[in-house]
Amino acid sequence: MIVLGSNSEVAQAFVEECLAKGEKFQTIYLLSSNPETTEKFAGHLQVKFLQNSEIIPLDLLNEIDYKTLENINFDVLFCATGYLGLGTEEGLYDDENTKQIIDVNYAKLVPVLNFFAKKMESNRTGTMIVLSSVAGERGRQSNFIYGSAKAALTAYLSGLRNYLFDKKVHVLTVKPGFMDTKMTEGLPLNPALTASPKKAAEGIYKAFKNKKDVAYVLPIWAIVMLIIRNIPEFIFKKLKL
What we know:
By secondary structure, the protein is α/β, with parallel strands linked by helices. The chain has a single domain (2-237), classed as 3-Layer(aba) Sandwich (Rossmann fold), CATH 3.40.50.720. The protein is 44% helix and 15% strand. α1 packs across α7 and α4 runs parallel beside α6. It is globular and about 55 Å long.
């Protein structure tokens, strides 16, 4: 198993959910831009589950050494890489903020996903699970730079799923709504629409085992986004969303 963004609370909760449900992995490869922090999780997996893992440094904002990834054998890839960045009021005209949001959530991520997708295609097996966002379903004034990057990622995953279907590779797009993580710390989140990492992991694991193509972490988000997508533009542009 490969984990991209292995310091994400959701990624770690998903790994634990898999192991608790009896999934077997010869090695879990923890790809991280902060290997020192990842060491604690690797130790936890060894102590609690007797699970072997290997930490591989990978920073999307720096040049990637693909040679370090060539000999990895895996059946499942879980990607929780993401960067929320500044909201529109603070960051719209901050070019560095915009570039980092687009790079981490899409531009620099897609080549890495392509690299692993090619290996899956060659092996004609495997599942790729990637966290996108409900923010990608319609541009809202509060976070449309982030939303646009996630929209691009969602479209990429849709096309990749279509391309890999007859190659026996499953691509699952996960669309979390609000999640109680470090990335959203300090934000005023509605408890009814917010999932803990553990709750998110349970939903993602169920979608994975049921071979879903697209899954919302909390079912209520399917209803919320159906409403948001269908608000007429002449009304939507007047809303403070």
